[in-house]
Amino acid sequence: MSARFLDPQVLARIDGLELLARTVVEGFISGLHQSPYHGLSTDFAEHRPYLPGDDIRRVDWRLWGRTDRFYVKEFEADTNANVVVLLDVSRSMAYGRTGVTKLDYGRYLAATLLYLSRRQRDRVGLVTFDRDVREVVPPSARHLERALHALERVEPGGPGGGGGTLGPPLARVMATIRRRSIMILISDLYEPPDALAESIGVLRGAGSDVIVFHVLDPSERAFPFDEPAPFEDLETGERMPVVPGDQAERYRALIEEHLATVARRMSETGLDYELTMTDRPLDYALLEYLTRRRALTRVR
Amino acid sequence: MGFLAPLFLAALAALAIPVLVHLTHKERKEPQVFPSLMFLQRIPFRTRRHQRIRHWLLFALRAAAVALLAAAFARPFLPRVGAEAGGGRSVIVLLDRSASMGAAGRWARAQREVRTAIDTLGPGTAVTLIAFDDRAEALARNSTDRTAIAGALARVSPGSAAGRFGPALRLAASLLEERGGAGEVVVVSDFPQRAWTGDEAGILPAGTHLTTRDVGDSALASVAVTSVVLEHTTDARTTVTARIVATGGRERTVPATLEVAGRDVQTVRVSTGPGEPALARFEALRDPEEPRRARVRVPADDLPADDAHHFVFGPAPRLPVLLVTRPGARAADALYLRQALAVARDPALPVTTRAANAVRAADLDAAAVIVLHDVPFPGGETGRHLLERIREGAGLFIALGAQGSLPGEIGTSIAPSLRPTDRAELGAAAAAAEPTHPVFSGWDGARGDPFAGSRTFRYRPLERARTALARFDDGTAALAAVRLGSGRALVWAADFANRWSDLPLQPGFVPLMHGAARWLAGYAPAPTAFAVGEVAELARPAAGALVLERPDGRREALDPEGPARVRLDASGFWLVRGAAARAQALLLAANVPTEESDPARLDPSRLGLAVAGGTVAAPPPRELAGPPAERERRQRLWWFMLATVLVLLAAETVIAQRTRGIIG
Fold first, then answer.
1. Are residues A137 and A277 in the same domain?
2. How much is the pTM?
3. How many residue pairs from chains A and B have C-beta atoms closer than 8 A?
4. Residue A127: closest CA among A181, A196, A193
5. Residue A223 sits in which domain range?
6. What CATH number is associated with residue A125?
7. Is A214's Cβ below 8 Å from some Cβ in B?
8. Beta pairing partners, B477
C-alpha cells in the first residue's frame, strides 16, 4: 500500500474530487490482501473476469467448465444499505494550520467514503450542514456524481452558518432519511460531550448505524501558540485576548479531557467513534470504515 | 576606560527600552483565528507571567546594542594600553602662573586641567611640570612620581608677573632636544594676547605635538589701576593722578582711594567702562620730607592683582645750581639765567649766586651744577676743589663772555680764542649741530632749532672744540661739550647777559638751560614705580653689602661681588638698605604689568600651529583637548563599538525573524 496518494497534503493538489476519490480508493484497495467488496444481494447481474483478491467462492465454476476461464458473479445491489455522509461545514471546520483545513479533510474523506461505498454497491447520499441543513443529496445508486459535485461546491459556514449545535440539523436529517442507513458523521464536535451524545444519538432512531469521524487539526490538540494575541472564534467571531504559556497547558488538558469524554460518551451511546487528525493519511480512516462496515455486515 | 564626553552615558537609561519591550509585549494586532474558544479562558494581559523577561538572547542583544551605542557616543578611550603604559614616553606640562591667572576661578581650573592631563597618562610616562610667567621654572623634571608632581603643583600659585610663552617654550624645547627631539607638550593657560610676541614661532622641535588647555574666560569684569602720575608744583606740593581702566562688564562708578604710608588720604569716585579709561585726580598733597609708601586702589573684583597701584611718594627732585658771577657785576647780568633756572620742575633747579671771590668749598659741595658766568676759572684751592667736584660727577657750565677762562684740562681741548669775534652789524646766527643731544631734550624738533632767532654780536670762537653741539654761521663752535672724570662741562662762546648775544631773549633759552642742567648733573628721574619683572639699578655703597627686603617681608643680602641690581619679581614695596646702620634706605614700588589687565585673548590653535613649526594639526576644541582626546582619536574605540552595534542588530533581526512571537 502506498501512502503517497493518501497524504492529505498531497491530495490537496488533485483537482477534482472524483479523481481524488478514485485515486485513493483504487490505490487503497490494491494494497489489501483481501477484496473489500462484498455483494450482499442474490440477484445476479452479470459476470466479470476474476481479479486477484476476489473471493474464490464467488467463482462461477460452471462457466469455468465451459470456457476454461474464471468468472465471478456480480449481483444487483438493490438490497445494499444506504450510506449517508453527514459533513459538518460550519465555520470552525475552515480551520487548519497544516495546509489542509478540517473541511478539506472532511471533503476528501467524504468523497473517498462515498466512492468506496458506491463501489460496494451501496446507495450513497450526502448531507452538509452547519447550524442548519445546507444541502441534501438523497441516497441513491446514481447519486455519487451529484454528491461529489455537492462536495466540490461546499463552502464553510454560509450566511448565518456560524455557531449552533448539532442537534437541530441532525434531527432535520432524520426527518428526511427514514430508511435504515449507515450514517457517517464528519465533524469537529465542538460541543459538550453530553450534548453531542444526545444530538448524534438521534441518528440511531431508525436503526441506522452511525460512524463518527471526529476531525481535528493537530494544533487544536497541541496548541503551539506562544504569542499573546486576540483569538477569534471562527464560529461566532468573538474575540478574546489570549496569552499562551501556562494557559496552553491548561488548554491541552481540557481538550484531552474533552476528547476522552466524547469517546466514552460515544461508546456509551453505541456510536462508532474515530478521532482523525488532518495530518493523518486517509487510509487509516478508510480502514476504520471498512472494519466497521464488515462488522455491520456480519451483524446483519 | 575613560570617556571624553561622559554625559552621553546618560543614554544608558535607554537600556530600559528593551527591558520594557520584553516585559510588555503588545498584543498582536492580527487576530489568531481558532475553531472554538470554549477551552480558552479570558485573561488580562498584565499577568505575573507576562512581566517576566522572555527571549533572553534577544534581550541581551538589544541591551548590548543600546549600551554600546551610548558608550560609542561618549567617546571612550583606554588610558593605559600598549606602549603608553610603559616607559619611554615623556610629556611636558607648561602651567601659566602669570598675574592674570589669579582671576576668579582660573587657577582652580588650571590645576584641575593639569591633574587631569597627568592622571590620564600611563604610570610609566614621565612628566615635566614647568610653571611660567615672564620666566620659566621647572617644578618637576621628567618624573614618574605622581605624588611629587602633585606636591609641586600644590605649592605653585599665580604671581605678579606678566605671562610670556617664549621662555616656557624655549625651556620645553631645550628639554625635548635633550631627549632627542619631538615630544608632547601641554600648555595650560588663559592665553592672553600679550603673551604671544611672534618670536615663539617654530621654537619647538618639528613633530612636537602640542595641545592646549584654555582656562580663560571672556566674561571677566575687572577694574584696574594701571598707572599713577605725580605732578610737582612750585609750592612744594604734589598732585596725584591715577589712570583707571575697566575691562568687561558695563560702565560703572568705583571709588578710588589714595593711600599714603598706610593711611587713606583721599577717595574720589570715577566712572569707567570697557575701552573708556578714566583719570582719578586727587587734591595736591604737601611733599613729604622723605619717600613714603603710597598706592591708589579700587575695590576688589574678579582680577585682584591689578586693583592697586603702588608708588613711591617722595619730595620733588632738586638739582642745586651755583651761579658764579663777577664781583660787582650788576644783578641784571645774571637775571635771565636765574629766572630760566628758577622755573624748572622735575627736577627743580634752585639757584645760589656767588661772586667769584666769595665761593666756598661748601657752595661747591652743595651744588650739582656750577655755572661760571663771564668770570675767570677760579684759581687756587677753589679752582682745584671745583675741578675735583667736576671729576666726581658735578656739572660745569661756562659762559665765556669777555673775562671767562678755562682750566687747563678743558682749555687745551677747546682752546677758546682770547680775541672776540665782532659781528656787530647783523650778528651771527647759531644752530644746533647735534640736535639729538640730551642738552636739547627739552626742545623737540617741531619747534625748530633751539637757537632760532638768536643773534650773537660778539663771541670767542672755540677753535679746537671736538664736540661742538652748536655752531655759528661762520662754522666755529658756539657750544662745546667735554667730559672730565665723571663730570661734564659745557662751554658757551658768548654770555647770558643779553650783551654779546640775545639768546636769553629767545624762546629756546629756558628749555636749553633746563636740558643743559639735567645733562650736566647726569640727572635721570627716579621712577615712582616699576613693573614686576623689571630690574632696578642700585647704587653700590662704598662698603658692605646691600640688604633687600621683599614685599612679603623676607630679607636677603645681595652678593657684594655681583651687579648692584635687583629684579622685582613681586608686586608691592621693596626696600634696599646698606649694611651700615645709618645707611639711607631706598624705597622701590613694583606693580603688576599693565598688560595683564588687557582682556584680549589669543586663539590657542594659533599657538599650537605656530610653535611646532606648523607640523601639527590644530588642537581639538577645549573640552576635547589634551592627551585623552588624542588617545581617543588614535584608538577609535567608538568605531569598533558602532561596528559591533551593527553586527548585533543584524543578528537580532535574524533571530527575531526566526523566533515567532517577538515584538520587534
1. yes
2. 0.52
3. 86
4. A181
5. 3-32+81-299
6. 3.40.50.410
7. no
8. B462, B471
* B619 — pLDDT class (breaks 50, 70, 90): very low
Report the percent of chain A where pLDDT is more than 70: 77
* Same domain, residue pair A99 and A165: yes
| Residues of A whose CB is below 8 A from B50 | 228, 243
Please, which pLDDT band fits residue B52 given cuts at 50, 70 and 90?
A: low
Mean pLDDT (whole number) for B395-410: 89
pLDDT at A114: 87
Q: Grid cell 497541541 — which residue?
A: A222
Of A13, A44, A78, the residue that ends a domain is: A78
- Distance, in Å, from the CA atom of B14 to the CA atom of B100, rounded to the nearest integer, reads 44
Per-residue model confidence (pLDDT) at position A33: 44
* Count of the separate structural domains present in chain A: 2
Q: What is the pLDDT of residue B541?
A: 66
Residue B437 to residues B91, B450, B463, B509, B512: CA-CA distances in angstroms? 54, 12, 21, 16, 11
Query: Does A130 contact B at CB distance below 8 Å?
Result: no
Average pLDDT score over chain A: 79
Option in A95, A190, A251 nearest B33 (CB): A95
Q: How far is B40 from chain A (nearest CA, A)?
A: 6
Grid coordinates standing for B307?
A: 586693583
B32 and A228 in contact by Cβ < 8 A? no
Residues of chain B whose beta carbon is less than 8 angstroms from a beta carbon of chain A are: 25, 27-28, 30-45, 47, 49-50, 660-661
A60 shares a domain with A126: no
Contact state of B40 with A234 under an 8 Å Cβ cutoff: no
Asked if A88 and A73 sit in the same domain, the reply is no
- At B198-222, the pLDDT tens digits run 777 777 887 788 888 888 877 778 8
A78, A113, A132: which is the final residue of a domain?
A78
Closest chain B C-alpha to A253 CA, distance in angstroms: 9
Contact call for B50 and A228, based on CB within 8 A: yes
Residue A59: pLDDT over 80: yes
Query: CA A278, A30, A125: angle at the middle one, nearest 5?
Result: 55
Residues A161 and A271 in one domain: yes
Shared domain check, A107 and A49: no
Same domain? For A159 and A130 the reply is yes
State whether A254 and A277 are in the same domain: yes
Q: Rounded CA gap, B364 and B322, in Å?
A: 7
